[in-house]
Design a protein that fits this description.
The protein is an all-beta fold. The chain has no helices and 11 strands. Strands 2, 4, 5, 6, 9, 10 and 11 form a 7-stranded mixed sheet that branches. The radius of gyration is 13 Å and the shape is globular.
């Protein structure tokens, strides 16, 4: 089973860009589909984006056109490029992995967008 560690969060201003990374341990990373979720204060965790082992991507409507998910199987990593950030994007962002459902989660990284 893989283990996940996120990095790249921080404090940015509205309109800025940010790139989050998720590094995975384990030899079977390429067989997992990967995803990003987020949880804002006082809200439930919500889906942001997903990428299959073959590279097909899916996005939540709220981030479509602004966020891009990608993966590098040679580096056991998945990335999320976030552009045109909005204050409502402020949340803890979690990386997740799975084969049928999301079963492995990272510890999360905070992204704060100031207006």
């Amino acid at each position: 089973q893989v283990q996940l560690v996120e990095s790249g969060g921080g404090l940015v201003q509205a309109g800025d860009s940010l790139r989050l990374s998720c590094a995975a341990s384990g030899r079977t990373f390429s067989t997992y589909f990967m995803g990003w979720f987020r949880q804002a204060p006082g809200k439930e965790r919500e889906f942001v984006a997903r990428i299959t082992s073959g590279g097909t991507t899916y996005y939540a409507d709220s981030v479509k056109g602004r966020f891009t998910i990608s993966r590098d199987n040679a580096k056991n990593s998945v990335y999320r490029q976030m552009n045109s950030l909005k204050p409502e994007d402020t949340a803890v962002y979690y990386c997740a992995a799975g084969r049928s459902t999301f079963e492995v989660w990272g510890q999360g990284t905070q992204v704060t967008v100031s207006s």
